[in-house]
Amino acid sequence: MTARVALVTGASRGIGRCSALALAVRGFDVAITARTVHEGDGRAVAGSVQDTEAIPVPGSLDTTTAEIEARGQRALALSADIIDRESLYGLVDRVIDEWGRIDALVNNAIYQTPGTMDHIVDLPLDVAAVLVEGNYLNQLALVQRVLPHMLAQDPDEHGTRGVVVNMTSATAAINPPAPAGKGGWGLAYAASKAAFSRIAGVLHAEHRDDGIRAYNVDPGHVVTESQRARGGGKEFEDAGFRGLPAEVPGTVVAWLAAAGPDAIAQSGETLGAAGECKRRGLLPGWPPAPAPT
Fold this sequence. Notes:
Blueprint: E1 5-9, H1 14-25, E2 29-34, E3 43-44, E4 55-56, H2 61-70, E5 75-79, H3 85-99, E6 104-107, H4 125-152, E7 162-167, H5 187-196, H6 199-207, E8 212-218, E9 221-222, H7 225-229, H8 234-238, E10 243-244, H9 247-258, H10 261-264, E11 270-272, H11 273-280
Parallel strand pairs: 1-2, 1-6, 2-5, 6-7, 7-8, 8-11, 9-10
Antiparallel strand pairs: 3-4
């Protein structure tokens, strides 16, 4: 039987990597894309335009490819930049040429640039504009490129032709409890994610009867390799946002992509990764059992 195919953006590390691995465990062949191809080449940028230093960060397409293949599935690693729309079109075309179909699109990548955590008065407008380009418009472009292929596919036993999972953020819907740097977040990132978060609901309304399932996943506060490299994340925990392992949202993504009846019933919705993972017992050993008193 031909394996289902998933395309995951931003899969060199963090949530994208964990999503790709969880998809492989569920039997998907996985095409992965990111800017960092080789281990040791990754860099984490600061959230402010006042800090231009880039810090080395682990993770690469090479490493994620090896991990997918170790789980018994095929991997197709494709270098692409979320700010380069033509490279995104090219990777969709390449997956179709190589594997003939795309059953699940996971829009996980974000455009990482200084300015995402700057205060309003310090935010350059060109940075705000490029974040909308990378975090919304080019994600939309990917959906537009993939959707015709999904619609042309035969439905599975549940009537599903394709699944789109968008990694959104609570910053799109709630006000920060404090300024950026003190437990809150910057306007530029939140505004771009707010636009992005509208795609899934509209896609569901337009194509639910055609067998297209669309979801937003709110990952919660996940301390990624990039945050750890820069010593970040503690200010969010101090503000009350509990840190989660990247495997939690990654496991929820794979469960949605598998498109079983329970997942189909939630198409068009925004799902909190922590609550969904815990409620359905999707990740063995998480949450950990409380320590004995």
